[in-house]
Design brief:
This protein has 381 residues and is α/β, with parallel strands linked by helices. The chain has 3 domains: 2-145, NAD(P)-binding Rossmann-like Domain (Rossmann fold), CATH 3.40.50; 150-262 and 283-313, no CATH class; 316-381, Orthogonal Bundle (Rna Polymerase Sigma Factor, Chain: A). It is built from 15 helices and 11 strands. The chain has helices spanning 12-23, 39-49, 59-63, 78-85, 104-112, 123-138, 148-157, 190-193, 203-211, 213-226, 264-272, 303-314, 318-334, 342-353, 362-379, and strands at 2-7, 28-35, 53-56, 74-77, 93-96, 116-119, 143-145, 165-172, 233-237, 243-249, 254-258. Helix 6 packs antiparallel against helix 13 and helix 9 (203-211) crosses helix 13.
Amino acid sequence: MKKIAVLGSSGSIGQSTLSVIRNFPQQFKVEALSVNSDILQLKQQIEEFKPRLVCVRDKYAAAKLGSGLSSSTKVFCGEDGLIEMVRDSRIDLVMFAITGSAALGPLLSAIKSGKDIALANKEALVMAGPLLMRLARKYKANILPVDSEQSAIWQSLGNNCKADVRKIYLTASGGPLKNMPAGQFKKVSLDKVLRHPRWKMGKKISVDSASLMNKGLELLEAMFLFDLRAENVEVLIHPEAIIHSMVEFNDGVIMAQLSAADMRIPIQYALSYPDRLANRFPGINFYRLNKMHFEKPDFKKFPCLSLAYQAARQLGTMPAVLNAANEISVNNFLNKRIDFLSIPKIVEKVMRRHSNTDNPDLSDILAADSWARVEAACMCG
């Protein structure tokens, strides 16, 4: 039985992870849970799954949790508490369902503890991918991708080596604004941006999907996970979201992974790897699948994707700057302080002002991240 820590258990990916665990009580046990501040949901999860360890990042919310908990439940709080919790020797696998750069510290801690890591967070890898992958090799920590696209690449690669790969096709549905004229972007509503046509996701990733920044972050994630260059990764718009990504090999053979648009499928594979467990999740009915469409992305209409490719070519601290400026911009859009079109404009300005550092260490990455956040916040007014 694998003992699982679910970080970000109140979010969409966290809840889907618990749904998978609920279906396989003989294979998985919840050892630890963490939330940012949603203690009401955390209390319900504690009652059901009875974890030995819990953590609340928000210290004010953590102070309200204590009453009514079993004496056998150990409570951590804040980022330091989360970093300490994931080191626990009885945890076999850590599911990283935390959004944003907040995952970086706990991820470093889990890697240095040699844990298996189911990674649903892409921002930490975008910020510090080469450093994290080097540490994962050093400490023999297995990083198992959970994003449907990265899981598809991982499964399609199989046992083939990197030298056999000609190209990766990273598929994207196109998001909720795919068919909207660019001239309407300035006045597009928050509700429209958050209404993804295929996936039910959190607000931040929904905005990123609408701007195609999410696909840009996945480009960088794929480069670091699979040791690829930017020119080996091509984004392909595939509105049906049936093919989750493809690998083209040097002999012209293309391997693709197909499944229903249900995040529980890649989550289950990351948790059960190397085994495949039978489930009752929805499958694909090929008799009802009349057509599948593929298009080139419109880089002019969705400049965030161009900015991600720029960061992917430059590397160094530029991916961290791209990510930080985007996080601040998206947060301001969600709080209705800026319009949708301001997101790529602010990210581009911050990137243009940044003096890139090649081969950065952790302190360089954190400094670039902090600088970019201040710059972007000033531009958001």
